[in-house]
Amino acid sequence: MKTAIVFATKHGCTENCSETLANELNTGAELINLETAKEIDLNQYDLVILGGSIHAGMINKTIKKFIDKNLNQLLEKKLGLFLCCMEEGEKAQEQFNNAYPEKLRNIAKANGFFGGAFDFEKMNFIERAIIKKIANIEESFSKINIQSIKTFASEISK
Q1: Which residue, among 90, 82, 139, has the nearest Cα to 115 in the 3D structure?
Q2: Phi, psi dihedral angles at 120 (to 5 degrees)
Q3: Which letter does DSSP use for residue 7 in this model?
């Protein structure tokens, strides 16, 4: 089964989680960063995993545009969806529901919440200032959940 992990990342958290997921799947999954990929032919993949991150309460615009453009093709694939966000519980579920269309959520074989990270070295001055004020965090911080990535890999592999 040929697998694509299609993701969009702003500061690298979703890319790191995608790489960890690919290693857990151990199937030679192809990583496709929407920020750098040109054309993507979804016809060559049996399994498509979509991953995005939340910034200011919304999923990355690049992944949103990709979903809108490819919705019908995605509906015909074995599909997995994951989200990188700092929220947990109901708030994370709400962000997930807002990020991915209901049609995709209903057919997904696995859904994952992989946690998130604030990487101050990759943020501009304004982003750092906002994070410091809103999240009350003064330095880079990660709460990526490796166990969640492993569980997702196990579920999608069934």
Answers
A1: 82
A2: -60, -30
A3: E
Cα 46 from Cα 50, distance rounded (Å): 13
83: CB partners within 8 A, 6+ apart: 51, 52, 53, 54, 59, 92, 95, 96, 99, 100, 112, 113, 114
The residue count of the chain comes to: 158
* Amino acid letter, 149: I
Reduced to 3 states (helix: H, G, I; strand: E, B; else coil), residue 21 is helix
* CA gap 19, 59 in Å, rounded: 19
The predicted-structure confidence for 58-72, as pLDDT tens digits, reads as follows: 898 999 999 999 999
Write down all domains in the chain, each with its CATH number in brackets.
3-157 (3.40.50.360)
pTM of the entire predicted model: 0.86
Task: List helix spans (H) across the chain.
Answer: 13-25, 61-74, 89-99, 102-107, 125-135, 146-157
pLDDT of residue 90: 94
